[in-house]
Amino acid sequence: MTMTASPLPAPNRRPAFGAGFRLGRTAVALVVIVVVVAAALLAPLLAPFDPLSGDGALRLLPPGTEGHLLGLDAQGRDVLSRLLWGARPSLIAGLVPVAAALAISLVLGLLAGYASSFLGGLIMRVIDALFAFPMILFAIATVSLLGPGLTTIIVTITVSLVPYMTRIVYGAVVGEIGKGYLETARLLGASRSQVLFKELLPNVVSPSIVYATTLIGPMIGFSSGLSFLGLGIQPPNADWGRMTVEGVEVFAQGAPHVVLAAGIAIIVTSLAFNWLGSGLRDILDPQQG
Amino acid sequence: MIAFFLRRLTAAILVLAAVTFVVFLIVYLSPGDPVKTLLGQSATAEQIAGMRARLGLDLPFHEQYGAWLWRVAHGDFGRSISTQVPAMSILLPAFGNTLILALSSLFLSLLFGIAIGVTSGFRAGRLLDKVLMFFTEVLAATPVFWLGLILIWIFARELGWLPSSGMRNMRARGSSLDLLAHLVLPSIAASVLAISIIARLVRGAVIDVLASDYVKIAQAAGMSSFRIFRKQVWRNILPPIISVGGLQFGTLFGGVIFVEAVFAWPGISAQLFNAITAGDVAVIQAGVLMIAATFVAINLVVDMVLVWLNPRRALS
Question: What ipTM is given for this predicted complex?
Fold first, then answer.
């Protein structure tokens, strides 16, 4: 089965914005990411209240209530504090699986493209079979094996990203082999492993990192979706997806601020990672831009 | 063409065979004993052993797998362990409902994706293009379930224009207008990611075609933009649209689970979810297999259409 594109957001082929604007955008994205990461790391210091215990008397008070910038949730817990603490699992779920899948895919893709054709064929056929599995089915299967939680989210997303990333790495490897310089290096006396690690790997890594970066944003969204379905973070702890679920329950009571806060956090963070991805592509992989 | 088709068909069958193995393995490995669930806490060890033997659960893995595969190949997907209804009679109606949602989302994805992509491509670099591209970027960053909730909030709760959940209104049973009203919000939520992907792809393709020599000649000869679009651009952007559209259709099947959850749509993911909670092995296996088979079949069809449009593809 050939798949000509991935169902994950593809990077823009022809950027709508000029180079200067896009550089500025990448800078904005970096600032946002630094702020979000810092907020997650410093949550114990920054959060004005305990994210897990609330004051029932203050439940559902709107943003701007004294001392509670983003208001309170259904159990009278401070939304800002929960948002700050929730950044931790949300960022982990976006970053760790993408990094893990990148590492696995680099090994698989290099093996498939550069090792024996039998092994290569085998790897790529298995990858093809994995493509027939929608991501969410992986999630369900992993939950039934491991139970819900952050580990489940990480394993699920890692496993489901490997086929996509291995395709990209494999494609890059085949492309590099076609350029002929690897043959030249071999003829000049380089060993197989020298060719693999010194010549091939550096050229395959940058397009792979660019692709991986574009996956972080969607995976933050996907992981919050898993928590939304009850497959991820369990109460009373919360990532941004779990906050959305809790917000939904009070939606009808005229308190949309919990859902809005969580959703805007997801959108802004995802968008920042997507912009960083296209910025990195401009820098590392200009032919693709 | 026929050789290509046979090759692809063989590959598809091999993939499906691999899927059956994975499906069976996952269920085999998963914790929870369906027999204990079935017989309850008070069951004696003999009763449990007897039931295991009757269900063939005491056999070694390869024999269980072989027996299951044999039955599946003959169209017998087993019965739900809790309700004793055949798995397929639970899943088929739900599959139909998911298909309705997936098809209407595909329609919206193509309609808006192509409209935005073509507009942006013809206006590349202008303000409209920038606004539209920013819009697609925000759409791509918006979680589907969250968007669904916001749509419910605005259009069902605040404005009261559309129903917030389900597929049919009890009072308006069978009315297609009622079904359509229930379809609008879930279809929009399910299609945003695909709209954003298709729009960006179409935009790139339009820009490529507009930069080509033959379009420049046509423009120089005074051909109108609309004619250029109809005669030149359309033909060139069709293949990428079909391949991404097909792929999106496949992922919609797996991805609508979020939308189905938010809008309480009675589709296949709801059944699958129930089955998992209940440890209903036969329904899980049949449901996963059904989704995977649909995915594989769609890809096969997309490949064939692409080769039909451009026979040179068959050689690669």
Answer: 0.80
